[in-house]
Structures
1.
Amino acid sequence: MQKAIKRFIPTSWKPEARKLYYALFKPFVSILKRGFHFIPDKIELLTGKRSRLTPPKWMLFVGAGDFKAIGEKLLGHFIEIAGLKPGDRVLDVGCGIGRMAVPLTGYLKNGGSYEGIDIVTDGIRWCKKNITPLYPNFRFQLANVYNEAYNPKGKYKASEYRFLYKDESFDFIFLTSVFTHMLRPEIENYLSEICRVLKKGGRCLITMFLLNETSLKLIELKQSSFYFRYNFKGDRVNDKENPCDAVAYDEKYTRKLYNKNNLEILEPIYYGSWCGRKETLCYQDYIFSVKKIS
Ligand SMILES: C[S@@+](CC[C@H](N)C(=O)[O-])C[C@H]1O[C@@H](n2cnc3c(N)ncnc32)[C@H](O)[C@@H]1O
């Protein structure tokens, strides 16, 4: 709907239209969304179709698809690809509204723990209210960090933000669909923070949109769900008015960045179906890495 409206706005009006949208309409969009979903959400809860650990639909902001099914599928990948164990200390950067935390509550035990950080107040509030009281080893933290798409009023720059965790605190760190919304100086800082708080030999799984020969060819053939037509300060973005909507990175640059941050990519990279690849495990590309011991 938003995308359809955007097409009718002349490019030169877009910056002003965005400001107007955030100032005047966004609060109403959220009220309308709540009104629209209110009764179906309540019915789902009362009939047992939605558990208390699934947020109501009007609160969801983490992308389309079945909240529960996607979380469970990704948990399976964490176990199979990244060797996640029940006793691991886990960090979820950009945890949203608990899509991964919820399935992990049934898996992490025997000293296993979970920390989630995000920049969206409502998401963190929901997780603190609904998950932590039942699972005290699951904690959530709000970072007051700016992101044009998710937190346009954020105070701190993601390119300078320091995670509030001690060095080498985690066995496993993951980011699902987060670097796909962040720009180059931001992912550079975050990857160095990830390396700092990850234990030596610790594992990391990050999903991205990687540009390489195959994905670029499929984009050219219009097989892809994103075209990433625009260069934005060295990155390729899908929508130049809203660059953080979807960001893609050159695979060679990404590999160098991992190397610089002492993270060894464990081959293969699991390429996703986002660009029209067939028979894939996932939608976005999965990069699984390990922090080097020396
Ligand atoms: C598509 S959602 C994915 C959320 C969650 N990882 C999931 O899979 O359900 C992208 C998330 O990245 C978060 N995000 C964007 N920039 C961030 C930043 N600089 N630091 C932490 N989280 C960020 C957003 O707030 C949003 O929750």
Note: The chain has a mean pLDDT of 91.
2.
Amino acid sequence: MYRVIQWGTGAVGTEMLTAILDHRPELRLVGARVYADDKDGADIGTLAGRDPIGVCATTDVDAILGVDADCVLYTPRTARVDDVCALLASGKNVATTAFMFHPRRMNPADRDRVLAACEAGASSVHGSGINPGNLSGVLPLALAGMSRTIETLTLQERADWSVYESTGITFDNMAFGQPVESISPTATEFLAFNSSIFTEQVWFIGDTLGADLDEVTATVEAVAAQRDHQIFDHLLPAGTTAGQRWKWTGLRDGQALVEIETLWTVGNEYPTHWPAPRHGWTLTIEGEPSMQTHFVALASFSRPASMAEHVRSANVATAMQVLNAVPAVCAAAPGFATTAALPLIYYGNVFGRQP
Ligand SMILES: NC(=O)c1ccc[n+]([C@@H]2O[C@H](COP(=O)([O-])OP(=O)(O)OC[C@H]3O[C@@H](n4cnc5c(N)ncnc54)[C@H](OP(=O)(O)O)[C@@H]3O)[C@@H](O)[C@H]2O)c1
């Protein structure tokens, strides 16, 4: 039995909560850290739309630090190294969707603080998800198992965020709806943070597969909306940012060897000059052999489902990649438990046989 704390009960955190309550008898919820005042003191089961479990969510970080737990599922909108260090130093392992994907290329001062906290608490930390995570960290390695040689590896993510309910992330963090001139890899603290985690992923692939990269560059092209769009309770006005094409490119001797490209829109006006891969993720390896795989997560391939349900399925995938890692993270030696270091992550009873 693993005692877990949920830190953040947004879109991804809620998928973790419902999975724990409905499908993971080996995990027991012993706490939840929330930010919203109206969630403070609420029963965690009720917050997740389930029966009460007799454990309440709290905005009080000290109270969370005092709870005895094996692992914290850390899924806030804006991640803080200080939070994670405090959790690790208190003896709790941390599994997160937000950052800590490739410590070798993290800010060295942050990395040292995290390592000191792991040492103090004999704890470990793992960062993963869907992208960054499985599609940029697990799948490339899995395909590389069939490679004799690789010349280039590219991952393209094409997504329209109009139906992504986390509008705080879309508008406040990712700056959709802002002037196109204001979008750059260093424009805001969050855009810089976001760019740094994808940069880390390119380094991760390059370092793990021996690309011997000299540098990883980040560029973004922002595209303006032709007309107004209503996105949940947000108006995205015509003329403001409705498309962001990011590229994080790993170069050796000036040649692009590893690249992650995102083709993100809000309002579904797809720029005609952009490449048009299928929606979802396309991983392409040029080499011997050359390989390509396309990934999409949907609510179902067979039954009818709403667009909102389909979109939620990417949150489910993000959440499960990290939730399913809890036993491995708890078993890992103190320090960073990276995707390359952990065993392949899966839940052994995912078909749900009865005990
Ligand atoms: N690796 C991947 O593939 C991947 C994919 C998707 C998302 N993510 C990351 O996962 C995390 C959660 O995403 P999400 O879609 O669940 O986001 P979300 O729906 O916007 O959830 C936001 C969460 O942030 C909390 N919050 C509110 N104010 C905050 C503040 N000032 N500082 C920090 N957190 C605050 C909310 O608290 P309450 O609990 O009170 O509501 C909620 O738990 C984000 O860091 C996101 O970037 C990673």
Note: The pocket of NAP is lined by residues 8-13, 34-36, 39, 75-79, 97-98, 129-133, 166, 168-169, 318 (CB under 6 Å).
